[in-house]
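Query structure, 184 C-alpha cells:
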C-alpha cells in the first residue's frame, strides 16, 4: 500500500513510500506520523501540494521577495563566474595562442607549484606543459611560463571584476524584471 508523506510543520508533500505491514495483524498496514494513505494530487505548475484537514490541497507558490531574488541572482552570477574562470584562459607560446586549463583542483594548484619552484630557483629552464584540449604537452621555457601565469591572473581578475560589476547592478535593481535582465 502506498503512503504519502508531508512536512509536519508546513503540510507540504514530501514523497511517497510503501507502508509496512503490521507484524501483529495480517492485512493491517502501519502508517507513520506525518503520512497518509490519501493519494496525493497531481503536480500543477505554479502550485505546491499540502496536506490539510485530512486531504491534499493546492497552494500558490509564494512569490520571492526582491531581496531573495537579488540573493539568488548574485549566487547564480558567482557560480557562472567560477565556471568561467575554470574553463581556462588564453596565452601565446611561440606565436601560437593556446587555451590553458584553470580548474580549481588541479590546474591552479599545478601552476602555483611550478611558479613556486621557479621563484625558489629549483625549476628546470625548460619543461613540458599541456594546453587544454591538446593531445600532447608542449615545451616551454621559464619566461613563457611566467607570461602564461600573468595571462591567467589577468583573465581571472577580469572575470572577478565583471562579477562585482554585475553584483552591484543586481543590488541596485528595483524590480524583478531588472534582476532577470542581468546575465553573465
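Result returned for the query:
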Amino acid at each position: 500500500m502506498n503512503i504519502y508523506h508531508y512536512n509536519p510543520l508546513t503540510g507540504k508533500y514530501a514523497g511517497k513510500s510503501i507502508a509496512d505491514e503490521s507484524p501483529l495483524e495480517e492485512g493491517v498496514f502501519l502508517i507513520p506520523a506525518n503520512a497518509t494513505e490519501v493519494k496525493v494530487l497531481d503536480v500543477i505548475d505554479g502550485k505546491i501540494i499540502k496536506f490539510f484537514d485530512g486531504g491534499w490541497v493546492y497552494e500558490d507558490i509564494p512569490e520571492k521577495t526582491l531581496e531573495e531574488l537579488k540573493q539568488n541572482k548574485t549566487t547564480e552570477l558567482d557560480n557562472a563566474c567560477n565556471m568561467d574562470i575554470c574553463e581556462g584562459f588564453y596565452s601565446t607560446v611561440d606565436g601560437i595562442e593556446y587555451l590553458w586549463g584553470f580548474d580549481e583542483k588541479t590546474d591552479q594548484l599545478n601552476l602555483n607549484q611550478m611558479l613556486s619552484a621557479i621563484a625558489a630557483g629549483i625549476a628546470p629552464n625548460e619543461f613540458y606543459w599541456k594546453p587544454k584540449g591538446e593531445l600532447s604537452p608542449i615545451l616551454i621555457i621559464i619566461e613563457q611560463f611566467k607570461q602564461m601565469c600573468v595571462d591567467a591572473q589577468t583573465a581571472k581578475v577580469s572575470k572577478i571584476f565583471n562579477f562585482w560589476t554585475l553584483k552591484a547592478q543586481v543590488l541596485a535593481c528595483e524590480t524583478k524584471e531588472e534582476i532577470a535582465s542581468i546575465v553573465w
